[in-house]
Known about the structure:
Layout: E1 5-9, H1 12-19, E2 26-28, H2 29-34, E3 38-39, E4 44-45, H3 47-52, E5 62-64, E6 71-72, E7 82-87, H4 89-96, E8 105-109, E9 113-120, E10 132-136, E11 144-147
Parallel strand pairs: 1-7, 2-5
Antiparallel strand pairs: 3-4, 6-7, 8-9, 9-11, 10-11
Amino acid sequence: MCALSLLILGSSKRSLKRLTDRKLHVTEVSNASRTLLMNIKTLQWDPVLLRFFRIKPSVLPKIVSSSQVYGEVEHGSLKGVKIGGLIGDQQGALVGNKCFHQGEAKCTFGTGAFLLFNTGNDVVKSGNGLLTTVHSSYCNSRSILISE
């Protein structure tokens, strides 16, 4: 028997809250990393940064992996369908193009042009102003990182 599940791309936190009637307050690692408030080594909100910016951890969503069952759709024609995947826009393009291995890259064009390069599990410090961020994290596995 196949289980039906829903993958949410893009602004996942807002979509998830709407689909679950505000029962879930979570964000996944690729979206959390874009705030620059998440420690990309621990995949948790960075307490030093939160103190510096005077942000209470209680107001932030729980950080979850990119692939797990988060809950179910609470209303409409999809009521009862499990929500089993969340990922940010650019990282979603990497997933869609199967860029899961170190050295693979994807260039996307939309509101801007973004070149994302999979660096595997290693934080790569750029001498050229590139940003290291999280590609994804699946279940409880190590995160995959990218340079942008």
